[in-house]
Q: What sequence folds into this?
C-alpha cells in the first residue's frame, strides 16, 4: 500500500484532530497537579519567616536595624538658628547671612527707638517741683504811652537804686523777669572812674528809654537797670491816659 503523502496530518483513533499551532500551545501549558476531581491547592505567595529564618538570623537582623538607626540619628543635620543659608567658615569669620541678620537687628532697634522718642510720659507732682510756693508776677508799663514793658516777680519800683543816676538795679540771677522791649545801640558815657558801656532798651510803642544793661542781650549780666520814672505799676498812671 502507498504511504501517506508528505506534509499530511495523521489522525489517531480516539483523539481529535488538531491544528499544529494549537498543539504547540497545548504542549507549553502546565497540567494541574493532583488527581482529577479534587480541588486545586494554591501555593502561598510569601513564605513564613518563622519557618525559614532561625533565631540566629533574626538576632542579626535586629542588630543591623539598631545599628543603622543610630547611624541615621548621628547623620541628622544640625539645626541652624538663622533661616538663611549659612556656609561653613572659620572662627571669627562673618558670612553674608550674618551681615544680613546684623543689619536687620539694627533696623529693628532704630525703629523701636523712634517709637519711644515719639511718645514720652513724664509723671510730675508737686514733690518734684523746685518751687517752694507760687510766685506772684507783677506787670509794669511805660510811663508815657502805657505799653506793657516788664513782668517780674519783684516790685521794680522798690529795688535798690544806683547812686550814679538813681537807676533801679535788678539782680538777674536772683529775680525772675521778662522784658517786652527793643534793644538799641551801645552808649558810651564818661564817668569819674572811666568810660561806662550801656546797652539800652526802649519801649516798643513810643521809643522811650526804659533802662540798660552792661552787656548785650545775648550775654548774661549781673544787673539790669531801669531808669527813674520810666515805669509805672498801673497802666492808668501813664501820661497818655491823663489827657
A:
Amino acid at each position: 500500500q502507498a504511504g501517506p503523502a508528505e506534509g499530511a496530518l495523521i489522525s489517531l483513533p480516539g483523539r481529535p484532530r488538531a491544528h499544529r499551532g494549537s498543539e504547540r500551545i497545548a504542549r507549553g501549558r502546565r497540567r494541574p497537579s493532583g488527581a482529577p476531581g479534587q480541588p486545586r491547592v494554591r501555593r502561598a505567595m510569601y513564605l513564613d519567616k518563622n519557618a525559614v529564618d532561625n533565631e540566629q538570623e533574626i538576632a542579626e537582623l535586629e542588630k543591623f536595624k539598631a545599628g543603622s538607626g543610630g547611624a541615621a540619628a548621628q547623620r541628622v543635620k544640625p539645626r541652624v538658628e538663622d533661616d538663611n543659608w549659612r556656609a561653613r567658615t572659620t572662627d571669627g569669620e562673618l558670612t553674608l547671612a550674618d551681615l544680613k541678620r546684623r543689619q536687620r537687628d539694627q533696623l529693628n532697634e532704630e525703629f523701636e527707638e523712634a517709637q519711644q522718642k515719639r511718645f514720652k510720659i513724664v509723671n510730675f507732682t508737686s514733690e518734684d517741683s523746685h518751687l517752694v510756693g507760687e510766685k506772684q508776677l507783677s506787670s509794669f508799663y511805660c510811663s508815657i504811652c502805657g505799653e506793657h514793658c516788664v513782668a517780674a516777680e519783684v516790685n521794680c519800683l522798690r529795688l535798690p537804686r544806683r547812686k550814679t543816676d538813681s537807676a533801679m538795679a535788678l539782680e538777674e540771677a536772683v529775680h525772675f523777669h521778662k522784658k517786652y522791649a527793643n534793644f538799641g545801640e551801645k552808649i558810651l558815657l564818661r564817668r569819674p572812674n572811666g568810660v561806662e558801656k550801656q546797652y539800652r532798651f526802649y519801649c516798643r510803642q513810643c521809643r522811650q528809654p526804659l533802662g540798660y544793661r552792661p552787656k548785650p542781650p545775648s550775654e548774661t549780666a549781673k544787673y539790669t537797670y531801669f531808669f527813674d520814672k520810666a515805669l509805672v505799676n498801673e497802666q492808668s498812671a501813664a501820661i497818655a491816659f491823663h489827657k
